[in-house]
Amino acid sequence: MSKVLVLDSSLNGEASVSKRLTAEVVARLRARDPSLKVRVRDLAAEPVPHLTGGAFASFVGTDGESKARALSDALIREVQEADVLVIGAPMYNFGMPSTLKAWFDHVLRAGVTFRYTAAGPEGLLKGKRAIVVESRGGVYSDGPANVMDAQEPHLKALLAFVGITDVAFIRAEGLAMGTERRTQAIAAALAEVKDLVAEPALAA
Fold this sequence. Notes:
Layout: E1 3-8, H1 17-32, E2 37-42, H2 53-59, H3 66-81, E3 84-90, H4 98-107, E4 114-117, E5 120-123, E6 129-135, H5 152-161, E7 166-172, H6 179-198
Parallel strand pairs: 1-2, 1-3, 3-6, 6-7
Antiparallel strand pairs: 4-5
């Protein structure tokens, strides 16, 4: 039995493309393993507070906000218990939503999810998979707008920093470029989800 942690972060609620795709990932994983355990965090509906000086102080062991440290501990425990992370990440102003970044700010903690060694930083959340669903109004995976993509490289770096290097990205791009393009982009992303979850390595 596998455990999945879903992070949704779209402001569009049930109309969200990224949320539709994360739900599709979970549905297909559950079809392979009916005993799958799923924990969902909707970071738009229930946002993690943005990092404050008091919260950061509590993370590094000095006086600070005990509630912030307790929240950070809880968020980290959810990741530690998960085998697979499914992350819905719409692109807002070329990057991830600030609520998703706030979640990472609470999860990336020295000595807990990563540590510094003589050889450099080492992630402590190894052995997990991540499926990141990106929804984008334009096309940023290639072409002239690629240099403006501050979303995917950032997500990849944050996950790798805590030791999660087995990451698959599914992109629904061009969603704001007309109805036909939007329909095609969603269909292509749904097909990618089907193919990805069908891979033996993702067997639940």
